[in-house]
Amino acid sequence: MNSSDSRQLTTPAPSPHDYVGTPALATPAQVIVDVLGAPEPQLCDPAEPMIFADDLAAVRGDGVFETLMLRNGEVHNLQRHATRFVTSAAMLDLGEPDLDRWLAATELAAEAFGASVGAPEAALRWVYSRGRESTGQATGWVTVAPIAADVLTARQSGVKVMTAERGFRIDLSERSPWALIGAKTLSYAANMAALRYAKAHGLQDVIFVSDEGHVLEGPTSSVVVLRDNTLVTPPIEAGVLPGTTQAALFRVAEEQGWETAYEVLSVQDLIESDGVWLVSSVRVQARVTELDGHEMPRAECADEIEQMMWEAVAH
Amino acid sequence: MNSSDSRQLTTPAPSPHDYVGTPALATPAQVIVDVLGAPEPQLCDPAEPMIFADDLAAVRGDGVFETLMLRNGEVHNLQRHATRFVTSAAMLDLGEPDLDRWLAATELAAEAFGASVGAPEAALRWVYSRGRESTGQATGWVTVAPIAADVLTARQSGVKVMTAERGFRIDLSERSPWALIGAKTLSYAANMAALRYAKAHGLQDVIFVSDEGHVLEGPTSSVVVLRDNTLVTPPIEAGVLPGTTQAALFRVAEEQGWETAYEVLSVQDLIESDGVWLVSSVRVQARVTELDGHEMPRAECADEIEQMMWEAVAH
């Protein structure tokens, strides 16, 4: 309540990320496209605000999103993201997204990012909100920003991980559609809190586990386990998001003669496996090097597995 | 993906609310104060956007809020809201809010609302976000908007309610601080979905119940039960938000010779009680007239109970 408290909130905090391929920036290297606010998607000045104070995305986390990898000007795994985006929107009773419009916005954003920032890799995000509380008008926007340096580190060196109880019942999604399990909503505060908790304990990531001890997913990733010659991931019915990168990986792996399976997994299954990876669109893959304090040695075939992960997101 | 889909998203939807005391408005009757973006809180044009596209409130629901009642120019139950706001912020590892600053912003917003919109009752909201992803700069704002007509209806006629499994374990908050149980975060998508589900089934509100069958809270309210001469509410340890209106009510009730208690309650306890109310800051009270299809007759002393609820929020 004194003036030093006041300064605490008004002095700009240090940037949380060092961006790859760009210097530290006072004005962030971003591209913003407004998708729904005009007859056609249009570029916005990233130095200006674009969301109203009563937008339900900002005051209720009431909307859905996707994060896509933009690499050398190309968006990857687009169809799977689009499918999940439409499914998430339906689960929240949002109007069906006009995909042509979102794809036009994506193209516009990717071109503008190439022309202005030009980093080789970026995270391209679709955000679709229920819109303004006062008007009922839906809002949607696309952002592109360079990827954070810790993403590169995780790809190269892997991540130390803790398991964390998520606290949802495994059968909640069937009985309780309002829990929105399987929808990629903007209400990610608990996911972000779990990541902060891990980082505060010297770790880099989290794997959520159900009440029953079943492995679920990371806060922003799917869990893929190597067991002999089989890649295994928890089934959707466990209460996880359908993973776009995991799905693309499984297709590539099957083409290359690996087995794939959707199976209920315990934490012990992970510890005894031949390898565990967290896979997601922008980071692509981060091998788990330590799980709840157990060292997870790198399997001989890890290079081959990770190569498949990169192939999976290359188109 | 044809042009009619496109129009679906760009044509303004009808306003979701008729506001009390103001005509239907194309530009909403709002007041917006930016709390953290300048050396002092300042009024913003409500017709202009004020939040950046990468604000973590809007893309992750990563922040906290309070909704206060503004009645005839006065904000009610301020200290309890301020206390909970500080607690919520701490649970999310946000910087401690400078309350002097938030109170100055609140005063500015209330005065501007009185001068411009002038409705007798309004909802005044504090939103405190982790801020912009690209800069790490925290953001915060205060909005004031007239209350919706269905709030008046619920006060006068009560609400038909369904119970809904929330799916959290009752002891999750102790073992899993990342679940943020007890923090009033912006990640309210599931709460909003539960309310939509109820409304789609001809009801007006929801009471969440734990796995164990313990009564928790409404999506935007506390549950207060009348049993003989005692007012009962579930304990915080059940995994509910500390209710500001409930706390104020209990103080008034104790002064007037009623008993109060924090007790684990089952749905059957509610059905067999002498009355159930959903209490919250802006709606104040809505008596449950039907619970999971069971009619809940109005007790003789209901007028007295509701009178105490109004007294509780009068200062």
TrEMBL record, chains A, B:
Biased composition (Polar residues): 1-12
Coiled-coil regions listed: none
Domain of life: Bacteria
Top-level EC class: lyase
Positions of the UniProt region annotated as Disordered: 1-21
UniProt EC number: 4.1.3.38
Keyword list, A-Z: Lyase
GO biological process: carboxylic acid biosynthetic process
Keyword match Zinc-finger: no
Record-linked SUPFAM superfamilies: D-aminoacid aminotransferase-like PLP-dependent enzymes
Lyase listed as a keyword: yes
UniProt similarity note: Belongs to the class-IV pyridoxal-phosphate-dependent aminotransferase family.
Alphabetical list of PANTHER family matching this protein: AMINO-ACID AMINOTRANSFERASE, AMINODEOXYCHORISMATE LYASE
Name of the molecule in the record: Aminodeoxychorismate lyase
Species this protein is from: Corynebacterium anserum
